[in-house]
Amino acid sequence: MYWMKPTVNGDVIGVYQPSHEEFQQFGNNIHNIKAWAEINILSLSDVLVTSSWSTFGYVAQGLGGLKPWILYVPTGDRTTDQPCPRAMSMEPCFHFPPNYYKNTGSRRRLATASLAPHIRQCEDATSGIKLVNDKPL
Length: 137
Fold this sequence. Notes:
It is a single-pass type II membrane protein. This protein has 137 residues and is an alpha+beta fold.
């Protein structure tokens, strides 16, 4: 694709996928080694674009210290104003954090992302939370 339609400014784009496994194979250690190799290759990227809920992307961004671009796949007739926004941090999304409840008798659930200033709701998982650093380094 990039050979036939190069980038406007001449940047070289490389896409590497050594395993071509296509689907998860639980309990197959050879498959797991190939998956780990692919995650490591992703973590060495200069720029990382991942799909939402991508385990490979989450691990690679953490290993490489990368703030990825998250590609949202349209569902049905729904579109978004930002189809590929930048992640707020390099931290992976914790999809299913524990539930916390106020001790008021009504057992009203607390918004987990409001528990601390450095915890936010994930960009790609409404129930998930992630660590963020609001202060520039």
